[in-house]
Design a protein that fits this description.
single chain; YtpI; 3 helices; mainly alpha; about 0% strand
Length: about 100
């Protein structure tokens, strides 16, 4: 069960991060929309790195190096999730204010 959930999460977050990365770098889109999309990309990359960190704990033999790498990946993934969410929400609010101001 863990493997199916893990692989689904890895593939979904990898596809989402590539999609958002390509979408954010298109020409002719508003800079706030691009930054919102980059926030979504950071969220999906945070999920991916967090899943890599959680996967390290699923092995039978846990040595000190594996635990250190897992905790490091979890830390980086959670930080990426938090900062990506913060950026997305900040730029979404700025974009909504700009749309409201222009209409």
């Amino acid at each position: 069960m863990w493997f199916a959930t893990y692989m689904t999460g890895v593939i979904a977050s990898l596809v989402a991060s590539v999609y958002y990365s390509v979408t954010a770098r298109q020409r002719g889109i508003h800079p706030l929309v691009s930054r919102m999309t980059l926030g979504k990309m950071n969220i999906s990359l945070g999920v991916l790195v967090t899943l890599f960190g959680l996967n390290q704990f699923s092995f039978d033999e846990l040595d000190k190096i594996r635990i250190f790498v897992a905790l490091l990946l979890l830390f980086v993934g959670v930080i990426n999730l938090v900062l990506g969410t913060r950026n997305y929400l900040r730029y979404r609010a700025a974009w909504q204010a700009e749309v409201k101001k222009s209409s």
